[in-house]
Write a structure and sequence with these properties.
This protein is about 65% helix and about 10% strand. With about 575 residues, the protein is of the alpha/beta class. It folds into 2 domains: about 325 residues, ABC transporter type 1, transmembrane domain (ABC transporter transmembrane region fold, Up-down Bundle), CATH 1.20.1560.10; about 240 residues, Rossmann fold. The N terminus is likely disordered. Bound molecules: adenosine-5'-triphosphate (ATP) and magnesium ion.
């Protein structure tokens, strides 16, 4: 994923606040109210020390002695109430922020182009959706608490201290510029360290996921050592990144504590001087010291706000990058396609974004309505790429593909794809029931159509043998099925969609001849009345095609029906014979 241009932390927070406030202004207001009353109770606690000592202990005033415990208790009641409001309502805002950000990321994920998935590791995306967003929300909530509650507490306590003894307060404040200097110098360091720490989570998920998905290969090819090593590396990167962060954070807090500590010692020293001793009562002095200690907690919070804000910005950059990633180009506005006309390729070339030379070179091809055309050619010559251009999984780099005489770029993706069924080279099935897999994306399908699709795809027999028939769950990507069974379910899915154009990218894995025949027969039936484009690896599949298009290295080198091409005794002839005598 490209680095965001939104380096500006403020922009990220402003955006986050906008999202957090949407539909949430009441909980935010209640939480802030809670923070304010908690913040006011701290100076009140410190203030009540003065009458307790001066009035209660020294002057032994009976009024003070009888009233103060209640006063103290009242302050604690208010404080508890404030704390509850803050925790509960901040959580409400934080959780709805996580919910909303996840929703935004997922929505965009559905609309991202295939090329995005080509270049991004799924571990990276997962870590943004699971980890970064949680971090962002908790950091944002904590920062808000620090900024409002702790800052108010500090201000309140300072005002009280100033009232008691401005001289001592000034000494205490001498430390402030040092803290500000230190904090701002550590700003940049934090952000880059936090980025490292967060990105390393993506690495961990990535390696774990590959081992999970490729567990058979790991077992058979004895990949234990290699994978352990790979995992150790990313796991260690993650540990180191977090330790670097902790080191910087630790030094930061420790140095701030030292500065505050020096100020405290300085104050005690100064207060023993006569000119101060004369101006301050015992109650005032204890109250002052009390306030100073109470200020340390919020001050520590305020000192760590920087680290937290930087963490939030780093996480926010990752989250918003995914939300802002460019969607699939869907600028066409024609919403109606009947496919009464041919599919025409006009000088179409295509270059994968990360490649140097085009994979599809200047293709001109006409696929007539209702025709059955076959694409053949050596592995890697660009067949799958070419058919992927028709439903616009990728867009041509130059040239046009027209259907019904309309440039597919002018159609909405929905109108275009509604008319296509696609059986890919790698069968994709979901961890769901047979039924839900084949009705995928369609509503109101009755049971009899499902049975008929299974029958026509030669799947009914094996599905009926499964423990729960069409309601059997088939495992992630259909792991509980054989390769041929998976393909036949993919064909059943295409049967149910029953669209005018059928694209079938034959799987390269070879099947036993019975399965192959089943698939062949299913396909023969499926393509009736449709414009069918088949990529064939077994040339026996294509003998009946109206047009066989032979590709080499991204270009069409021959085309015609089987007999024409055989009699030409050129590339196809050689390809055909090489398979015959295999
Ligand atoms: N997502 C991608 N990004 C970059 N290059 C790719 C991508 N997919 C395929 N290619 C390259 O494009 C070329 C054509 O690939 P394509 O999958 O179209 O071949 P194919 O004719 O379908 O091969 P096969 O018969 O093995 O399925 C290959 O050289 C491949 O390396
Ligand atoms: Mg292919």
């Amino acid at each position: 994923m490209e680095k965001s241009t939104q380096k500006n932390g403020w922009k990220i927070y402003k955006r986050l606040i906008r999202i957090a406030l949407r539909n949430n202004s009441t909980p935010v207001a209640i939480a802030i109210f809670g923070m304010v009353i908690t913040a006011v109770s701290d100076p009140a606690l410190s203030a009540i020390m003065k009458p307790i000592l001066d009035g209660g202990f020294i002057q032994r005033d009976p009024n003070v002695i009888s009233l103060l415990p209640f006063g103290l208790f009242a302050i604690f009641i208010i404080r508890s109430f404030g704390i509850f409001l803050t925790i509960y309502f901040m959580a409400k805002v934080g959780r709805s922020l996580v919910y909303r950000l996840r929703e935004m990321m997922f929505k965009n994920l559905l609309d991202l182009p295939v090329s995005f998935y080509d270049k991004t590791s799924s571990g990276d995306i997962m870590s943004r959706i699971s980890h970064n967003v949680e971090l962002l929300s908790s950091v944002a909530a904590r920062s808000l608490i620090i900024l409002i509650r702790d800052t108010l507490t500090i201000v309140g306590l300072l005002v009280w201290m100033f009232y008691l003894s401005w001289e001592l307060t000034l000494i205490f404040l001498l430390a402030a510029p040092f803290i500000v200097l230190l904090v701002s110098s550590l700003n940049k360091k934090f952000r880059s360290l936090t980025h490292d720490a967060q990105n390393s989570v993506g690495g961990i998920i990535h390696v774990a996921q590959e081992v999970i998905q490729g567990n058979k290969i790991v077992k058979i090819f004895k990949g234990y050592e290699k994978e352990t090593f790979r995992f150790e590396n990313t796991n260690d990167d993650n540990r180191k990144a977090h330790m670097n962060l902790a080191l910087t954070e630790g030094i930061n807090s420790a140095v701030i504590m030292l500065i505050v500590g020096s100020a405290l010692s300085g104050i005690i020293l100064v207060s023993t001087f006569d000119f101060i001793l004369e101006t301050i009562t015992v109650g005032s002095f204890v109250s002052f010291m009390f306030a100073m200690f109470m200020i340390l907690g919020p001050a520590r919070g305020l000192a760590s706000i920087n680290a937290r804000l930087q963490q939030g910005i780093a996480a926010g950059e990752n989250v918003f990058e995914l939300i802002d990633e460019n969607k699939e180009n869907d600028k066409g506005n024609i919403n109606n396609l009947n496919i009464e006309n041919n599919i025409v390729f006009e000088n179409v070339s295509f270059l994968y974004p990360n490649n140097n030379s085009p994979v599809i070179k200047n293709i001109n091809l006409e696929i007539k309505v209702g025709e059955f055309i076959a694409l053949v050619g050596m592995s890697g010559c660009g067949k799958s790429t070419l058919v992927n251009l028709i439903p616009r999984l990728y867009n041509p780099s130059s040239g046009k593909i027209k259907i019904d005489n309309i440039d597919t770029m002018d159609l909405t993706l929905n109108a275009l794809r509604k008319n296509m069924s696609y059986v890919g080279q790698d069968t994709i099935l979901f961890n769901d029931t047979v039924k839900n897999n084949i009705i995928y994306g369609q509503n109101n399908i009755d049971e009899s159509s499902i049975i008929s699709a299974l029958e026509k795809s030669y799947s009914l027999e094996f599905v009926n043998e499964m423990p729960n028939g069409i309601n059997t769950i088939i495992g992630e990507n259909g792991v509980l099925l054989s390769g041929g069974q998976r393909q036949r379910l993919a064909i059943a899915r295409a049967f149910l969609k029953d669209s005018p154009v059928l694209i079938f990218d034959e799987a390269t894995s070879s099947l036993d001849s019975v399965s192959e025949k089943c698939i062949q027969k299913a396909l023969d039936e499926l393509k009736i009345g449709k414009t069918t484009i088949i990529i064939a690896h077994r040339l026996s599949t294509v003998e009946k095609a109206n047009n066989i298009v032979v590709m080499e290295n991204g270009s069409i080198i021959e085309s015609g029906n089987h007999d024409d091409l055989i009699s030409k005794k050129d590339y196809y002839y050689k390809l055909y014979n090489s398979q015959l005598f295999k």
